Amino acid sequence: EAQVTQNPRYLITVTGKKLTVTCSQNMNHEYMSWYRQDPGLGLRQIYYSMNVEVTDKGDVPEGYKVSRKEKRNFPLILESPSPNQTSLYFCASSLSRAGGGYTFGSGTRLTVV
Amino acid sequence: KNEVEQSPQNLTAQEGEFITINCSYSVGISALHWLQQHPGGGIVSLFMLSSGKKKHGRLIATINIQEKHSSLHITASHPRDSAVYICAVRNAPNAGGTSYGKLTFGQGTILTVHP
């Protein structure tokens, strides 16, 4: 089954403790991206990647890092999480930057206390 | 002004009613997506449109590129259609720089269908 697998689904952590949210797709998609969803603000792009070793900032990149060492994986790293990063996070993939439908992961609800 | 505007923000209907959700955008796009998000959070892609009209079951999506407007229709609505519907546009190549290919989202329409 074609899918984007995101883990974990739920995570509670403390301020400053590094964490990684994993994202993996099995569709050989070139384009992958991370979004956060907050009440009243909707979905906003954090980082995106057009292919292996090609990543760039989205609208709200502060406090986040990403890497794309393999085509299928696009982890989101919070080096020193803060409470304002409490949010619902989604990873998504698409065939390419130019076109194709999007497939979303099931989401990660992160709480930073 | 947001680049993608949806209306209405909230919509309540009785089972069986015909529903329309509207989306207007101000940027050049290569495609428009309609997404569905159920309580519990997962996002599912319903349609991708670059012109004309698409139909899937009771759902119909249309787009008018000249007017920069799209509509999502649900015929014979059912309580299981209750969800948030999100319009998203993919920036066109002439958007330039890092905007090309980016998805910009509307705020979403919360639909509740009562039995």
SSE layout and pairings?
The complex is a heterodimer of chains A (113) and B (115).
Chain A lengths: L3 E4 L2 E4 L5 E7 L5 E8 L3 E10 L2 E4 L7 E2 L9 E3 L8 E8 L7 E3 L3 E5 L1
Parallel strand pairs in A: 2-11
Antiparallel strand pairs in A: 1-3, 3-8, 4-5, 4-9, 5-6, 7-8, 9-10, 9-11
Chain B lengths: L3 E4 L2 E5 L4 E7 L3 E9 L5 E7 L2 E5 L2 E6 L4 E6 L8 E9 L11 E3 L3 E6 L1
Parallel strand pairs in B: 2-11
Antiparallel strand pairs in B: 1-3, 3-8, 4-5, 4-9, 6-7, 7-8, 9-10, 9-11
From N to C, what is the helix and strand string of chain A?
Answer: EEEEEEEEEEE
Give start-end ranges of low-pLDDT stretches of chain A. none
Largest interface chains and counts: A-B, 27 and 23 residues
Shape of chain A: globular
N-end to C-end Cα span of chain B: 36 Å
Q: What oligomeric state best describes the polypeptide chains here?
A: heterodimer
DSSP, total strands of chain A? 11
Helix content of chain B: under 10%
* Number of distinct helices of chain B: 0
What are the segments of chain B in which pLDDT stays under 50 over at least 5 consecutive residues?
none
What is the count of helical runs of chain A? 0
Name the beta content range of chain A. Answer: over 45%
How is the biggest beta sheet of chain A arranged?
Answer: 7 strands, mixed
* Share of residues in strands of chain B: over 45%
Question: What shape does the CA trace of chain B take?
Answer: globular
Structural class assignment of chain B = mainly beta
Spell out the helices and strands of chain B N to C.
EEEEEEEEEEE
Distance between the termini of chain A: 36 Å
Q: What's the Cα radius of gyration of chain A?
A: 13 Å
Q: Give the overall pLDDT of chain A as a whole number.
A: 94
Secondary structure class of chain A reads mainly beta
What do you see in this structure?
The complex is a heterodimer of chains A (113) and B (115). With 113 residues, chain A is mainly beta. Chain A has no helices and 11 strands. Chain A has strands at residues 4-7, 10-13, 19-25, 31-38, 42-51, 54-57, 65-66, 76-78, 87-94, 102-104, 108-112. In chain A, strands 2, 4, 5, 6, 9, 10 and 11 form a 7-stranded mixed β-sheet that branches. Chain A has a 4-stranded antiparallel β-sheet with strand order 1-3-8-7, with no helix packed on it. In chain A, β4 and β5 form a beta hairpin. Chain A starts with a strand and ends with a strand. The model of chain A has no long low-confidence stretch (mean pLDDT 94). The model of chain B has no long low-confidence stretch (mean pLDDT 91). In chain B, a hairpin with a 2-residue loop joins β6 (52-56) and β7 (59-64). Chain B has no helices and 11 strands. With 115 residues, chain B is an all-beta fold. The termini of chain B are far apart. Chain B has strands at 4-7, 10-14, 19-25, 29-37, 43-49, 52-56, 59-64, 69-74, 83-91, 103-105, 109-114. In chain B, the strands form 2 sheets. In chain B, strands 2, 4, 5, 9, 10 and 11 form a 6-stranded mixed β-sheet that branches. A 5-stranded antiparallel β-sheet of chain B has the order 1-3-8-7-6, with no helix packed on it.
